[in-house]
From TrEMBL:
It comes from Methylomonas albis. Keywords: Membrane, Transmembrane, Transmembrane helix. This is DUF58 domain-containing protein. The keyword Transmembrane helix applies. The lineage of its organism: Bacteria, Pseudomonadati, Pseudomonadota, Gammaproteobacteria, Methylococcales. Residues 202-216 have a biased composition (Basic and acidic residues). The chain crosses the membrane at residues 43-60, 66-84.
Length: 316
């Protein structure tokens, strides 16, 4: 894939060596523009050893010391090329991201492929988590790294760094990459599990249960998520435990979750509570609708409807 040319100032900008270039949708092929190399501590110690041998050869006029010093120097310089080849030519592109709730570790998936005929050994990948892998010739592999999520909405991955000290550990070759592949972060569900709000099926006031036309169908033990209006307060007052009244009818099976009736002191608290109700309603198999300022999602259930409602909360 062709890349826009960099000016001289951009090429030597310090952040480019650690944070990478501007985010791109990918794929990115690692070339000499993307791969950087510096000696490791072992490499610097190797240089000192070479200098010491050359100094001994000079002081004592010892040809064997010169020979050993020049031999090690040739190994040192040849290792630069092999360190570069450990990453050069690899192609990396983002895979499909899976949405998470705020506060969870966000999984960012990447597809890394080795189109060459030589295997690649000990390639390290780091985001906020790290892993190491080896790629056989013409092998493609999908890896998942994790990054903390704090706020709802779209979150871009940080700098993905590929690195390797292969073959001798004298040099570290690394390539910092940034991708324009955002992860959708849902609001964090409220920790306090409140009863579902009362609902009228969305025909009168979203947020109030309508029992006209419904038939009383008995009581059962209270379950988490039952509307507070369904609680059998008379039985509770008599010390018979907490029970919920059950009704037969269409209106009792539909739940409306309205932003205006969600408890909370600010937007994030309200969205957090709506998110909790969405999770509980989906787990309970209820038909539920969502009402946000400027948006109304009709009642339904299932994975597609669940994700649609969560996305509406995340991007509100």
């Amino acid at each position: 894939m062709s890349e826009a040319a960099l000016s001289l100032k951009q090429r030597f900008k310090l952040s480019r060596f650690f944070n990478g270039e501007a985010p791109t949708a990918g794929p990115i092929v690692l070339t000499q523009r993307r791969v950087f190399i510096l000696p490791t501590q072992r490499g610097l110690a190797f240089v000192l050893l070479i200098l010491l041998l050359v100094l001994i050869g000079f002081v004592y006029n010892n040809n064997l010391a010169y020979l050993l010093g020049f031999l090690l120097a040739s190994i040192f310089f040849v290792t630069i090329l092999h360190s570069f080849k450990s990453l050069a030519g690899l192609a990396i592109q983002p895979a499909r991201q899976q949405a998470v709730f705020a506060g969870q570790a966000g999984p960012f998936s990447f597809q890394i492929s080795n189109p060459g005929s030589q295997p690649r050994f000990a390639v390290d990948l780091a985001l906020q988590s790290e892993l190491s892998l080896s790629l056989a010739a013409e092998q493609c592999q999908t890896v998942t790294l994790y990054q903390a999520t704090q706020q709802r909405g779209w979150q871009l991955p940080g700098t993905l760094t590929l690195s390797s000290t292969y073959p001798l550990g004298l040099f570290r070759a690394w390539a910092p990459l940034r991708f324009d592949s955002p992860l959708l972060v849902y609001p964090q569900p409220a920790s306090r599990q409140l009863p579902f709000p009362d609902s009228d099926g969305g025909q009168e006031r979203p947020g109030q249960h309508r029992r006209n036309g419904d038939e009383f169908d008995g009581v059962r033990a209270y379950q988490q998520g039952d509307a507070i209006r369904q609680i059998h307060w008379k039985a509770f007052a008599k010390g018979q435990g907490v029970h919920s009244k059950q009704y037969s009818g269409a209106s009792s099976s539909e739940l409306w979750l309205d932003y205006q009736h969600a408890p909370g002191h600010h937007t994030e608290e309200r969205l957090s509570q709506l998110c909790r109700w969405l999770v509980d309603a989906e787990q309970a198999g209820l038909r539920y609708g969502l009402v946000l300022p400027g948006l109304r999602v009709p009642p339904d259930n299932g994975v597609a409807h669940y994700r649609k409602c969560l996305q509406a909360l995340a991007l509100f």
